[in-house]
Amino acid sequence: MDKNKFAARRGPSNEAVQVVVRCRPMNAKELANGFKKVVDVHPSRGVIEILNPRDDGKERKKSFTFDAVYDAMSTQEELYNETAHPLVSSILDGFNGTIFAYGQTGTGKTYTMEGSKPDPSQKGIILRSFDQIFNYISRSKNMQYLVRTSYLEIYQEEIRDLLSKDRRKTYELREAAGIGVYVKDLSSFVCKSAKEIEHVMYVGNQNRSIGATNMNDHSSRSHAIFMITIEMSDTDSFKKIIRVGKLNLIDLAGSERQSKTGATGERLKEASKINLSLSALGNVISALVDGKNPHIPYRDSKLTRILQDSLGGNSKTIMVANIGPASYNYDETLTTLRYANRAKNIKNKPRVNEDPKDALLREYQMEIARLKGLLAERARQRELLLAVPVTKHEGNEDKDDSESGDKDSTDTEEKLRLMKELEEKKELLAREKYASEKLEMKIRAMESKLLCGGKNIIDHTNEQQRALEQQKQEIAERKKREVEMRQKLELQEESALEIRDTYTTLQQEVDYKTKKLKKLFARLQSIKQEIHDVTEEFNADRRDLEAAQNELLKDLKVRYLVIDNFIPADEKNKLLLRVRFDESDGSWYLLPLVPDNIVTVKRPVSSGGERRPVSDYGRVAIRLGRSHRYQGENILNLDLEPHPRTTSDYTGPIIAPKIHALLEEAMREEDDLDVDAAPLSNINFGARAKQSRKDREKEKLLKGNKARKKSSDLSSQSGNFLSTPPSTPPLFPKPRGLIPK
Ligand code: ADP
Ligand code: MG
């Protein structure tokens, strides 16, 4: 690809975020419930109209204009060819690009980004972009490409790598000059074909659902970001300039308002974190559009930091706002349309990324060159080795012939030596060959990752198909231009009304002015309505925020209370001295208790290979054989010597005799109280209470037989007991207490 083509595609320096809206069809449930359709989509003009279902025709339809709008009949292919295709082409020229799907849960964000799996015609933007990228590369000439992907998820302000095995590990954001914001240690996979990259996506999606208890719930609350980085360089030009295009494909969390009020503790934290990224995104968009404040709050959330370049920076950006057509979604749909309408005004400054600092392609190229050098060096050495012949020892030739007896033996020695040398040489050569083969394999493996047109990728599409694709592209482009023209025409018509101020007759003037008045009045009404709606929305947001703030304040107060009452002041101060704020992370951390720079002194190593330090005396003793096991070592062998006792047995306190007597009285064992179930009247309490249980048992034993005999008499007497009143009042045992009365 020549430089001019790059320059031509470099595009304008200032480019607005493209906003397209897609309205999904009514689903079966909505149809069954008989919900009304309140959204009208006009693809030819790029206009969406929405009617308030609560207002019986009094309120006018609200109308929004976008770069493109897609109705229920729109196909995945149409949307891709018209919006995403040109952006992906730019990525292949070295631009950054972002496509994100925004909208309420269930409106088709995942459908737009990923599509439904089994049907190829239902493939979403991500899968189609893979096809486009690899098809493009396969047709390129004299170019080398390296494609790698990463897949991450942001859930409750924590970044997780969807391609890593460790699902619990969270990742941090870093910023570096020349690279921008990136996720530290995020894994990335080099992909050689659309199939490979698809596999990566499915693995990531599977990981996404593993961590979630309820997949639907989880995916509607988390942001998934699929990143494709394409590095490219010319292979024939002398100076190999490397360009890099980065594509972020984002399926955002559902934009519906999460209820914050009433939640406390963990739930509050969760609720405030879920929508934090989305509200931060809204704030960033507002700040960018407003333009009054130079500070853009990118740092407020992880999502906005990752999207820093995509919003107002070096990137081409497309926002796909997804909406539902049914009446019960009216509020959310309107909010989404307003959000999208605001985003239209963001201006980006995309440029081709040349010579990036973190180019993996350069590393690969350099490594391949190094390995090739090594291989060449090995080949040279092998040749040298082969060139040196296995020769006889010169010294042996000078030997006297007369020493014939020795000669035979030296000859065989010589033979053996030569054979050994030969063997060694063979072995060396074999080793060399093995090493060279390994090197070659490594080089081939690395080169296979670098993609070149027509070489690595088998391009199945034939010329006809290519031509068809090209035509489809052209149609898409034309359609886009048509919508643009219509929008321009409408604008011109409006302004033309103001310009035409010469009229032939008075009646004509009246007609024109009435028409103009009507139009302006309608506009005034709709703007008034808009102001009212926006104020309402703003107030609702404010109420929510205030409620969240109150809850957080309460939480903070409790924490302060705990700190003030349960943590000693000096401990608190020590902690305060250790605590630091990490600007790059936006989080607090504690400095370690022991500074890192203190080197702990190591115990000296035992000298002379002994297990313990040994005295010279010990060493001599060992050598003289006067040793038993520890004699040579500095250990004193002494009997245990008991220490004199320093403690005494416990003796109770001295108690005054009067108190002692009182205590005795209080501790004295007393008779058990016997509570009888018999009626109060028939018992002589005083006498019975004083009778001990032992006495009563004795009595029972003695009277055992007598009692049985008299049982009939007793039963006859019982009637009398009930009827006769008690002669003396019942006596209860009295509390004695410690103090005598
Ligand atoms: P989200 O990701 O926004 O929560 P989904 O993409 O899961 O929503 O869509 C919800 C359902 O609606 C899915 O069953 C999907 O197939 C269907 N759907 C969404 N948009 C469309 C569309 N444009 N055409 C047909 N079906 C759609
Ligand atoms: Mg989804």
Key attributes of the depicted protein:
741 residues, 10-stranded mixed sheet, 3-stranded antiparallel sheet, 19 strands, 48% helix, binds adenosine-5'-diphosphate, binds magnesium ion
Task: Write the topology of this structure.
Layout (H helix, E strand, L loop, with lengths): L2 H7 L5 E2 L1 E6 L4 H6 L5 E4 L4 E4 L11 E4 L2 E3 L5 H16 L4 E8 L5 H5 L11 H15 L3 E13 L2 E4 L11 E4 L3 E4 L5 E2 L3 H17 L4 H7 L1 E12 L7 E10 L13 H10 L1 H15 L11 H5 L9 E8 L6 H14 L3 E2 L11 H28 L6 H4 L6 H46 L1 E2 L10 H37 L6 H61 L2 H10 E4 L4 E4 L25 H8 L33 H11 L17 H6 L2 H31 L18
Parallel strand pairs: 2-6, 2-15, 7-14, 7-15
Antiparallel strand pairs: 1-16, 3-4, 4-5, 8-9, 8-12, 8-13, 8-17, 10-11, 13-14, 18-19
Helix pairs in contact: 3-5, 3-15, 12-14
Ligand species: adenosine-5'-diphosphate, magnesium ion
Assembly form of the protein: single chain
| Share in β-strands | 5-15%
Overall geometry: flat
Count of β-strands:
19
Overall mean pLDDT: 78
Structural class: alpha+beta
Specify the helix fraction band: 40-55%
Number of continuous helical runs? 21
Q: N- to C-terminal separation?
A: 117 Å
Main beta-sheet strand count, sense and barrel state: 10 strands, mixed
Taking Cα atoms only, what radius of gyration do you get, to the nearest Å?
Answer: 46 Å
Query: Which spans of ≥5 residues are poorly predicted at pLDDT below 50?
Result: 1-12, 395-400, 679-692, 705-726
Written description of the protein model:
- The protein is of the alpha+beta class and 741 residues long.
- The chain has 21 helices and 19 strands.
- Strands 2, 6, 7, 8, 9, 12, 13, 14, 15 and 17 form a ten-stranded mixed sheet that branches.
- Strand 3 and strand 4 (47-50) form a beta hairpin.
- The longest helix has 61 residues, at 506-566.
- The chain is flat.
- Bound molecules: adenosine-5'-diphosphate and magnesium ion.
- Magnesium ion binds at residues 109-110, 219, 251.
- Keywords: ATP-binding, Coiled coil, Cytoplasm, Cytoskeleton, Microtubule, Motor protein, Nucleotide-binding.
